[in-house]
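Design a sequence for this backbone.
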């Protein structure tokens, strides 16, 4: 843990009531001010000529990251992994999302087609485009360097794996150095040896993981880094799906394995191949795990247009939780019935949570509707509210007497059917 300003102050002349106390040689008016600035990283420890060796040592060891941050790949499209500071997401947010990579063998007859598929894979979810982060190229024949070049030309971050990969090749492609050990103890030995050689961009790999020992081993590594600041294990972890014993190639089992690795505690996962279903599941899980639990994903309240709206377009209202917004938006889009979507200020909560926290009620909805000027954009007065808050119907109608409140669906997935019925009932045309 980093030292606080007060902890630093206790070791300074001011804290020890020594004659140099508050001498101002560091440029600060007091030792306390210096301690505070040093703790915040706004000042160098060398500015005070009276620092003791004890404080210097304490400060340097407390400033060392628990887990190193490793950046690899091309400058235009780098991947950052590591730099985690907590064991559990509820303590503080996780920092750098798990890198999802796909294995490619240099000898693979379908190399180019597979690379193209990896390159083109992209899904949009909650306003973010999710992609495969890197390719792990295995040295399986003498075309290895040529294949590395092809991947690099596509600006895809590279992990280079297999036998006989020279340091200068890793440097050329800014690829991490994989340090492996069959067990955690062997890994510690090998990592220390790499550190002794001055290697810095290390990623750690336990090559003999199994369904039985996976969580135990990876938790041990993460704990040693986070809680004990144990330098040889203070690096990101890479796990190759193919190396983990006890999981078949069945997509469900591979998906389970990947999910475990995202949660505990692999910083880089190397899938054996690109299966879109597995990739989507893992990227979605990762997106959820790596959000800040203290800051819900939310969007700006206001009026949003879905499609080419006109004065007959239906008007939906929902909360500003990003997942709610994107789910409702995409289902309206899928229905081909252009609509207005009005978003209430609900502290980023989903519909039922907002309702139970009194962040979504008749008054809030009515105020949002009035402020939106939607009555000037449509020639009807029908407001579709989420089915889960149908109890608000009367309350809203009291606040907005000119409006008819229509109860929508509980789940966004039912909006397409709902809008088909709505169209028939109110004679609204598709866009
Ligand atoms: Fe205190 Fe700054 Fe003087 Fe050091 S240089 S003793 S921190 S006032």
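Sequence:
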């Amino acid at each position: 843990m980093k030292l606080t300003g007060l902890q630093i102050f206790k070791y300074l002349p001011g804290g020890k009531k020594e004659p140099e106390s508050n001498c101002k040689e560091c440029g600060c008016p007091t030792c306390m001010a210096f301690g505070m600035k040093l703790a915040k990283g706004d000042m160098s420890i060398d500015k005070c000529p009276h620092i003791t060796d004890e404080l210097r040592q304490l400060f340097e060891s407390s400033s060392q990251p628990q887990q190193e941050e490793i950046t690899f790949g091309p400058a235009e499209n780098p991947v950052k992994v590591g730099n985690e500071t907590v064991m559990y997401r509820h303590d503080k947010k996780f920092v750098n999302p798990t890198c999802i990579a796909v294995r490619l063998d240099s000898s693979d007859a379908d190399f180019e087609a597979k690379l193209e598929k990896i390159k083109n894979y992209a899904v949009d979810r909650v306003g973010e485009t999710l992609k495969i982060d890197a390719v792990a190229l295995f040295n399986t024949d003498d075309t290895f360097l040529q294949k590395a070049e092809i991947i690099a030309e596509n600006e895809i971050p590279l992990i280079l794996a297999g036998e006989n990969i020279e340091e200068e090749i890793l440097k050329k492609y800014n690829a991490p150095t994989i340090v492996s050990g069959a067990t955690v103890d062997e890994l510690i030995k090998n990592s220390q040896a790499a550190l002794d050689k001055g290697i810095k961009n290390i990623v750690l790999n336990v090559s003999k993981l199994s369904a039985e020992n996976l969580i135990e081993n990876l938790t041990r590594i993460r704990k040693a880094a986070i809680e004990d600041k144990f330098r040889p294990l203070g690096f990101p972890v890479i796990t190759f799906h193919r190396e983990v014993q006890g999981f078949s190639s069945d997509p469900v089992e591979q998906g389970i394995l990947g999910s475990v690795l995202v949660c505990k505690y692999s910083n880089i996962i190397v899938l054996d191949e690109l299966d879109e279903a597995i990739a989507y599941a893992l990227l979605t899980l990762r997106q959820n795990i790596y959000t800040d639990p203290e800051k819900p994903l939310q969007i700006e309240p206001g009026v949003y247009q879905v499609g080419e709206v006109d004065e007959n377009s239906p008007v939906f209202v929902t909360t500003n939780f990003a997942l709610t917004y994107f789910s409702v938006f995409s289902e309206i889009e899928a229905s081909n019935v252009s609509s207005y979507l009005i978003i209430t200020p609900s502290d980023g909560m989903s519909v039922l949570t907002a309702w139970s926290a009194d962040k979504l009620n008749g008054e809030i909805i009515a105020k949002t509707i009035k402020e939106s000027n939607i009555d000037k954009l449509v020639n009807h007065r029908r407001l579709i509210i989420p089915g889960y808050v149908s109890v608000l119907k009367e309350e809203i109608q009291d606040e907005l007497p000119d409006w008819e409140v229509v109860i929508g669906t509980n789940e966004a997935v039912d909006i397409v059917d709902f809008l088909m019925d709505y169209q028939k009932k109110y004679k609204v045309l598709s866009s």
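The chain is about 35% helix and 15% strand.
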